[in-house]
Amino acid sequence: MVAKYQKEHEVAYYECDINQTMTFPAMLGVAIKVSEEQSAVLERGPEYIRSFGLTWIITTYHITVNRLPMVGEQIMVSTQAKEYNKYFCYRYFWLHDAQGNELVKIESVFALMDLETRKVSSVPDEIVAPFESEKIKRIKRYPKINSPEKGHFLPYRVRFYDIDSNQHVNNAMYFNWLLDVLGYEFLTTHQVKEITIRFDREVEYGNLVESHFETIRDENHLETLHEIRIGETTYCEAAMKWHERTKNNENN
Q1: What is the DSSP letter of 206?
Q2: What is the pLDDT of residues 108-133, one digit of tens each?
Q3: d(CA 118, CA 190)
Q4: Confidence class of residue 166 from pLDDT cuts 50, 70 and 90?
Q5: What is the reported pTM?
Q6: Ordered DSSP codes for 132-155
Q7: What 3-state class would DSSP assign to 72?
Q8: How far apart are CA 216 and CA 9, in angstroms?
Q9: Burial letters for 182-215: b for 16+ Cβ neighbours within 10 Å, e otherwise?
């Protein structure tokens, strides 16, 4: 039986945006904290991982949203490290409301990076053993992310507080760059329902990145395509599906 861990969380006002809904950086921060607590309980915290000369990195998120948590709401955050193969570990997160309804599901792909070479390392079985994850041979695939072609971009400089203890930009910070370019009007009149995001390279302090995006819209479909670039090199890419906010589905 795969080990599962969960914890209650009250959504604070500083974790929410102008729509009074929880931001993705805040949501991912809470989710990762819960997974770190599970790792500590299972004696697989950062010090243990560093004893192998390794650290965890996240390569992919696939997020489906039924409803974003609201300010002041009591939610349950659950996590489960379900599967792993030679190079990747697949950890799931769920956010539920007080009635047990699923609000958000987050599928994440973790890898282990060698601290000296900064390259992906194979996964030692002893690191993941306490999580009771299923060992699989296949690499899980997520929806293809197309590049924005006719879009626009804004520049952003990487600040000191964008950097985490791994000496590169925290993955949650990318969401600020990806979403901010869409603008006030779009973000207050639309709600995201699905996100696929892939992190390709590390961004470091002082880098000037460009957040490129393209909007694709027809009668039944609204999607935005995103890339974080430095020069001609892509560091992060994402695809997001949206629906319009209305009085009836404003929080759905």
Answers
A1: T
A2: 999 999 999 989 999 999 999 999 99
A3: 38
A4: low
A5: 0.92
A6: TPEE-SSPP-----PPPSS-EEEE
A7: coil
A8: 35
A9: beeeebeebbbbebbbbbeeebeeebebbbbbbe
